[in-house]
Amino acid sequence: MGLLLTLLGVVALGAVVLTSLVSVIFYGSMLVVAGAFEIVHAFRIRKKGEKGGPFVMFLLGGVLSIGVGLMLLARPDAGLLALTLLMAGYFFASGLFRGITSVADRYEGWGWDLAYGIVSVALGAIIFAQFPSSSMWALGIVVGVEILSRGISIMAGALAVRGVLRRQVHA
């Protein structure tokens, strides 16, 4: 499994535009499915005579999820632009907060958090500065790197377990 995920990550990084579009379509599909489950859940927890409460919250949340999911599926190009802006904003804001907090508190290992903050702010700024063209590569690279690192992590974990098992057999 680790090897397959690693290979899939390499393929995803080799086709970042396709990976970006497939990610938006997948995300839109998952929102539609999650929204349907949320609506079903709303009716399952509804109490007779109750007005408002969790029923309305789950029902409206499900309708919103389905609506956003359908918009992403109908216009994946526009969805990709929106998700890229959200991603750039997230990187910038989280890096800014992490960097400021690390400098202000100076806890043990604060330098690593400051470095993370600087890299994250820079990444957010690069994605935003190259917008809208960055929408064609940014999401695909993030998804590809995640799949690749997950595959490597699974293989490293499997090798570590195998080494432990071999030591136990020989002990």
Total count of strands: 0
Give the strand content.
Answer: under 5%
Low-confidence stretches: none
Major β-sheet profile = none
Number of domains: 1
Structural class: mainly alpha
Shape: extended
| Straight-line N-to-C gap | 29 Å
Average predicted local confidence, pLDDT: 92
List SSEs in N-to-C order.
HHHHHH
List strands and helices in order, with pairings.
Blueprint: H1 2-14, H2 16-45, H3 54-74, H4 76-105, H5 110-129, H6 138-170
Helix pairs in contact: 1-6, 2-3, 2-4, 2-6, 3-4, 4-5
Describe the protein.
By secondary structure, the chain is an all-alpha fold. The protein has one domain. 86% of the residues lie in helices and 0% in strands. It has helices at 2-14, 16-45, 54-74, 76-105, 110-129, 138-170. Helix 1 packs antiparallel against helix 6 (138-170) and helix 4 packs antiparallel against helix 5. It starts with a helix and ends with a helix. The mean pLDDT is 92.
Keywords for this entry:
single chain; 171 residues; mainly alpha
Q: How would you summarize this macromolecular structure in one to three sentences?
A:
With 171 residues, the protein is mainly alpha-helical. It is built from six helices and no strands.
